[in-house]
Amino acid sequence: MSDPSSTISPRSSPISAEDADTLAFDGARDVLRAWLAGLRPDPDLTVSEWADRHRKLSSRASAEPGQYRTARTPYMGEVMDRLSPGDPTQRVVFMKAAQVGATEAGNNWIGFVIHQAPGPMLAVQPTVELAKRNSRQRIDPLIEESPELRERIKPARSRDAGNTMLSKEFAGGILIMTGANSAVGLRSTPARYIFLDEVDA
Ligand SMILES: Nc1ncnc2c1ncn2[C@@H]1O[C@H](COP(=O)(O)OP(=O)(O)OP(=O)(O)O)[C@@H](O)[C@H]1O
Ligand SMILES: [Mg+2]
After folding, report:
1. Measured from the CB, is residue 58 less than 6 Å from ligand 1?
2. What are the DSSP calls for 126-163, one per residue?
3. pLDDT single digits (tens) 41-88
4. Pairing of strands 167-170, 120-125
5. Does the beta carbon of 98 lie inside 6 Å of ligand 1?
6. Mutation pick for ligand 1 pocket among 50, 59, 62, 96 (CB with most ligand atoms within 8 Å)
7. In whole angstroms, what is the distance from residue 126 CA to residue 80 CA?
């Protein structure tokens, strides 16, 4: 058998899905497209840039519904940008006053991960009860209000949705929500991203 890469790309220009026509089997184009999508690196976009473009604050969950603007809470800009995959920071700790937009910034991070840099993510609230409430009141609207997120997470009522109150599946990742009081919920969960919201409460 010859080296398959020489069949796909005899030249040095980038491979595209159209090159699959040179491969002689059904579905070659789909296989190559999926493979190239998997190779694509995380985009050079920050969480605050993503939020300014794609995040809508729902009237169900926000004091000021509408388009999210980082300029409204500018001190959250750097916090969000340190959470971006292009930033080398591994751990962000935010010591804060009440109601300054911290959970909202964390939710922007969740939206960014689902849309732009998928991977397993663990979102922890102080208790499982609060995790459920947060899921209903803030995560569901986060998904519903952004078309880019809505198309990646199927509604909970559809069959085979991979979507329950405490876990939301999407291509390339899963968001698992739990409480800091649940040792069982925290165990055995490999995660690329961990969002701990006021767990010391
Ligand atoms: N950039 C923004 N533009 C408009 N409204 C915002 C913005 N950031 C946060 N808010 C709103 O401010 C309110 C408080 O936000 P949030 O719940 O994120 O704050 P918090 O710091 O997590 O509060 P708490 O201390 O109660 O946990 C919410 O209604 C939220 O939607
Ligand atoms: Mg909060």
Report:
1. no
2. SSHHHHHHHIIIIIHHHHHH-HHHHTTS--TTSTT--B
3. 877 899 999 999 999 999 988 889 999 999 999 999 999 999 998 899
4. unpaired
5. yes
6. 62
7. 21
CA of 55 to the centre of ligand 2 (A): 17
Q: Is 57 in the pocket of ligand 1 (CB under 6 A)?
A: yes
DSSP labels, 61-126: T-SS-EE--GGGSTTHHHHHHHTSTTS----------TTSSHHHHHHHHHHHHHHTS--EEEEEES
Q: Where are the domains of the chain?
A: 47-196
Q: Whose CA is closest to 78, among 56, 101, 55?
A: 101
Q: Which residues contact 42 (CB under 8 A, 6 or more apart)?
A: 85, 86, 116, 117
